[in-house]
Amino acid sequence: MSPEPSLSTLKTWLSEQIIGQQSLVERLLIAIIADGHLLVEGAPGLAKTRAIKCLADGIEGDFHRVQFTPDLLPSDITGTDIYRPETGSFEFQPGPIMHNLVLADEINRAPAKVQSALLEAMAERQVSVGKKSYKLPELFLVMATQNPIEQEGTYPLPEAQLDRFLMHVNVDFPDFESEREILRLSRQEAGQSSANSVSELSQQAIKTLRQRALDLHMADAVEEYIVRLTDATRNAEKVSAELEAALEFGVSPRATIALDRCARAHALLNEQEFVSPENVQAVVHDVFRHRLILSFEAEARGVDADAVIDQLIEHVPLSC
Length: 320
Prior knowledge:
alpha/beta
């Protein structure tokens, strides 16, 4: 019997399949360990779909992709009751949300009711159809994608719905050498009858990893640093006048929890025995990016959320 594959084995294999997108690979694994969902934004063709499909190949669980379109209905996501004339009763037909890994491709192309159905399932881990509620799998991850280039015919996600995502990850183009490796990998896969495989990480192993992340030592100073970062977004006047002018609203307590979970997962992924301030700083952009509401003045000056988070890291001390 072959031994249980390790997290580092899965990370190495994913990095070989998703070339030039190391940050995306890390964030997917962090989301699995932290038990949260990802919003991934990037131009077409940057391996977003490939990334989660490869992750599905590397862990025990099933995968389903949903292409979001303006004519999609909530029942196309959650499932619906089907009438069976032979029995004279209704039978629940599960929708794609019942899978372990779900790719919501171009989520901003679907109307608000469909987005709401998906995001409710993400938050409550159940769907309600008629008078009944149905539990979702214990291992459940949604990766939603957005195309930042074309905004015609899209329905932007409201801030309250964005807050349901653990992280908002920006995906950029690969560098020159990575592009060459992608080309070679594409030729290699085209000449093979089957893709390179990896031993699946079991759901029990994932539960163990989640508990290990929660058990990692975190010093009081690091915990206070996390809270101080989130508090600074709500009381920016105490940090700097520039930060106060840039922020309209700060992040919610959900961001504090997400930052703690992601920092722990990042530490575990890098085989550390404790959580450091560097782990917090490594994930804070992805955790805060979609939760900050910038002022009109900041947007007029071309200041984005990442620049504001850079200011937070610069001005918020590790300890008082």
